[in-house]
Amino acid sequence: MRVSATPRLAGVLRVLALIIAIVTTWIIIRNCMGFSTKTIRLPRWLAASSTMETQVMKHKCGLIKPCPANHFAFKIGSGAANVVGPTMCFENHMIMSPVKNNVGRGLNIALVNGTTGAVLSQSAFDMYSGDVKHLEKFLKEIPKGALVLVASYDDPGTKMSDEARKLFTNLGSSYAKQLGFRDSWVFIGAKDLRDKSPFEQFLKNNPNTNKYEGWPELLEMEGCVPPRPF
User: Fold this and answer.
1) What is the pTM of this model?
2) Given a cut of 90, is residue 225 above it in pLDDT?
3) Which of 6, 147, 179, 209 has the most CB atoms around it within 10 Å of its CB?
4) Number of CB atoms found within 10 A of residue 88's CB
5) Pick from 106, 109, 84: nearest CA to 96
6) What residues have CB less than 8 Å from 216, skipping those under 6 apart?
7) Is the bond preceding 229 in cis, omega lying within 30 degrees of 0?
């Protein structure tokens, strides 16, 4: 018994006809339109704007300009009154912030490896009703070569002891000796610095100049810190 091949042949012919029609249509459209996808370009101003935005967004910790080679990017903000906690970013890593829920009233401190930039530890010390001995112990045990990042929140000075002030001064602080009730303070230091740290801001609690009722304005400090020593 013979089986007719006519239906199979007809199916093959229909497929070939469809392929030819698709190829022909594409050639006609391409010739009429006169462009290929490779010729599509953004306007120069739009391309420049897009590139600029990408550059701004990619800089670590939101800095407008990139840091020099072998420098660490940082941005530190003190707390705002007793309402908004401090923030601490280093090498594009948010170490401490209200969102992370790891900040507290008093002094917020992070230790960073001064060579690699790796975060070693972070802690908050209540300087209004806490025990300053915990802060003193923490400062005495800072490893050599570590960078010390500090941000105040609410009240950094009520429980401050002479020993703690001395330890901060040895880290390069110029203002630890006068740090008091509800002052604003941000600082980056390191153990056994020869000179004072260039990375420090301080604002005294003063009823005549306070930004907020009972508290001075929050402080923000950002920039590029070289690896130890600096």
Assistant:
1) 0.74
2) yes
3) 147
4) 29
5) 109
6) 182, 183, 184, 203, 204, 205, 206, 209, 210
7) yes
